[in-house]
Amino acid sequence: MAEDARKDDGLPLHTALYLEPTYWNDRFTKEDHYEWFKDYTHFRHLILANVKPTDKVLEVGCGNSQMGMEMYKDGITQIIRTDLSPVAVKRMEEKSDALGYKEIRHQVADMLNLPYEDGTFDVVIEKGTVDVLFVDSGDPWNPSPDVVSRVEGMLKETHRVLTSDGIFISIAFGQPHFRRPFFEVKGLTWTMKWDTFGDSFHYFFYKLRKGTKDEKQGPSDPLPLQENSKVTFNLEHEYMDNEDYLLHSTLADDE
Ligand SMILES: C[S@@+](CC[C@H](N)C(=O)[O-])C[C@H]1O[C@@H](n2cnc3c(N)ncnc32)[C@H](O)[C@@H]1O
């Protein structure tokens, strides 16, 4: 399926394919390196401000990104890099071993069902992985039940495997007004803070510190539609110089 589902330029015919393990396996078999959003140099200062060298780190959806290896070079060595794609995991393990990064471990893991005990990690980090759960979400103000259930499942799992004051770092395209209803839902004890990085286009570096909010606070469900706003999806290829645009949604206020 995956081969004929890709266009000549390697992009998927339908963004829903980003949810298919076969799409990613096929892609990682052929592609050596693709960095979603920006590479590490653009947000390194934010990593160093929020992650300590002694922290136990879980990276979810590592793909073939260099991020975990760059963190290792910065002295953050206790990293488990995971992805749903066994191809990605095997290739990243080979690369890491060849470079002698012995402490980095690699595992196949589904972020919706993480194979780790409660309270295992000081940091869970992802870049562009949560965004994948939002593809085909329709109206981002009123996401479909499937999207809500996927994203909530991922966030609950992340929250569960963090230590009592651990931090979830989400490097994402999705804007704060769309993410807050998910991140701050009842049952999760973190509070959403963020920085931005990037030049002409801004990406978001979300920081969610567990234990900073009462679990009873927050909406039970993602917030309802906001009035007087409409959302447009910008799918023009020339809009960006890579496929980030496929995950992009913009908010436009009605005049
Ligand atoms: C947009 S790519 C981002 C890759 C990488 N983090 C980066 O910054 O370049 C999304 C990644 O999420 C992985 N993925 C998709 N669904 C997943 C799931 N349920 N659990 C873990 N990883 C998943 C894909 O295999 C892919 O590597």
From TrEMBL:
**GO BP annotations listed:** methylation
UniProt KW keywords = Methyltransferase, Phosphoprotein, S-adenosyl-L-methionine, Transferase
Q: Which residues form the Methyltransferase domain?
A: 54-173
Pfam families on file: Methyltransf_31 (PF13847)
Q: Which reaction does it catalyse?
A: N(6),N(6)-dimethyl-L-lysyl-[protein] + S-adenosyl-L-methionine = N(6),N(6),N(6)-trimethyl-L-lysyl-[protein] + S-adenosyl-L-homocysteine + H(+)
Instruction: Give a GO molecular function annotation for the protein.
Output: methyltransferase activity
- The superkingdom of the source organism is Eukaryota
The record describes the protein's role as: Protein-lysine methyltransferase that efficiently catalyzes three successive methylations on 'Lys-36' in eukaryotic translation elongation factor 1 alpha (EEF1A1 or EEF1A2).
PANTHER family assigned to the protein according to its UniProt record, in alphabetical order: EEF1A LYSINE METHYLTRANSFERASE 4 (PTHR12176:SF80), SAM-DEPENDENT METHYLTRANSFERASE SUPERFAMILY PROTEIN (PTHR12176)
The family note in this entry says:
Belongs to the methyltransferase superfamily.
Q: What is the name of the protein in this document? A: EEF1A lysine methyltransferase 4
